[in-house]
Design a protein that fits this description.
By secondary structure, this protein is α+β, with helices and mostly antiparallel strands. The protein has 2 domains: 71 residues, Glutaredoxin (3-Layer(aba) Sandwich); 132 residues, Glutathione S-transferase Yfyf (Class Pi), Chain A, domain 2 (Up-down Bundle). It is built from 10 helices and 4 strands. A 4-stranded mixed β-sheet has the order 2-1-3-4, covered by helices on one side. Helix 1 runs parallel beside helix 3, helix 4 packs antiparallel against helix 6 and helix 4 packs parallel to helix 7. The radius of gyration is 17 Å and the shape is globular.
């Protein structure tokens, strides 16, 4: 059985968790905070989460994990069979993570955890988010799913990143930068949130965040 290690409020942890649920792969969960402790570095090379433990060994980096799960458990595919459409699915994921979420992440310290972020950083992130989201709007189909007519791994990733980027931008800028640049995301999020596994991840995420903040 796969053991998923990390924290339940991490969008990259939940990306992996949602794919495991959607593909109906049995797994256990272990709460592990990122650190540079030697014991963790033996399990995750940079002390990052999430990582998984499998009968064959451990794997880190969420996108590597997703593709391993797809190849190892092909019965309920979350990537298109056609090679080009499969590449387009990966393109959407990479664009979401490198050109949108990675920039928004610089806001999380203040947006969610009580820290502060400089005005210079806020202005820079605001500009980069605009570029990234406009680019994503050119790629996304929303017909009705982000890559087309079929629910894919790109939807598992998009739902999580849209949620956290929207919340961070509302907390920092007073408005939802995702909806400002891609208004169709509102209807899209409502569609994705009808899925039972998405609802479970959302509920678990809320409990994990509440528990973390209480500590």
């Amino acid at each position: 059985m796969i053991n998923l290690c990390g924290v339940g409020f991490s969008n990259y942890y939940n990306k992996t968790k949602l794919v495991l649920l959607e593909k109906e792969i049995p797994f256990t969960e272990e709460e592990v905070l990122p650190s540079q402790d030697e014991a963790l570095l033996k399990r995750s090379p940079l002390g990052k989460i999430p990582f998984i433990e499998t009968p064959q060994g451990r794997l880190s980096e969420s996108q590597v994990i997703l593709e391993y799960l797809e190849e190892t458990y092909p019965e309920k595919p979350l990537y298109p069979a056609d090679s080009f459409e499969r590449a387009k699915c990966r393109e959407l994921i990479q664009h979401l993570e490198l050109n949108v979420e990675l920039h928004a992440r610089r806001l999380y310290k203040e947006a969610f955890f009580g820290g502060t972020v400089s005005e210079e950083t806020k202005n820079e992130v605001k500009a980069r988010l605009a570029i990234g989201l406009k680019g994503l709007a050119r790629l996304a189909k929303f017909s009705p799913y982000i890559a087309g007519g079929t629910y894919t791994a790109a939807d598992c990733v998009a739902w999580l990143h849209f949620f956290i980027v929207s919340k961070a931008s509302q907390n920092i800028y007073g408005c939802d930068k995702v909806l400002a640049h891609i208004p169709t995301v509102a209807t899209y999020m409502q569609l994705i949130e009808t899925r039972p596994h998405v609802q479970k991840v959302a509920a678990d995420r809320a409990m994990a965040m509440a528990a973390f903040l209480k500590k």
